[in-house]
From TrEMBL:
Protein's job: May be involved in the biosynthesis of molybdopterin.
NCBIfam families: moaB_proteo (TIGR02667), molyb_syn (TIGR00177)
Record organism: Vreelandella glaciei
Protein name as annotated: Molybdenum cofactor biosynthesis protein B
Pathway(s) it belongs to: Cofactor biosynthesis; molybdopterin biosynthesis
Keyword tRNA-binding recorded: no
Secreted as UniProt keyword: no
Amino acid sequence: MSEPMVPLNIAVLTVSDTRTEETDRSGQALVERLTSAGHTLAEKRIVPDDVYRIRAVVANWIAEADVQVVITTGGTGFTGRDSTPEAISVLLDKRIEGFGERFRQLSGEEIGSSTIQSRCLGGLANATVVFCLPGSTGACRTGWDGILAEQLDSRHKPCNFANLVIPGRGQHG
């Protein structure tokens, strides 16, 4: 008999100079997937692609005891204002190198060599796991369906990130 999944509190940040709540399909796709999986939306925000504004929001969420996961979408490419990796990387205590590698592997099956332009990243900061996904809705679906759904499920074996952020567990479980 399987143990019950422990729901996580997940914050979603859309990084965009142009999107609004009405046009933010990527952020909404993440919210729909995380709530359908049984998790709780802690907060959802949209901020312009500005290093300091991105960093401020994510740093505040990392400092909050009730936010266990932060997922960002947008700002991971190579255009002039794409700055999510620069904003987030300095906040991380440990990087999850395999996250970007696995994402690009999955994405490559869908968009070919264009996946090398994704600078998505993941890491751990103050017992909060942080994942930065590209801004396209397809990339958010790929990231959630191919990686995050399992890694944020406390029942996934042999290991998952959920058990690292659930109070009292602090292990892969």
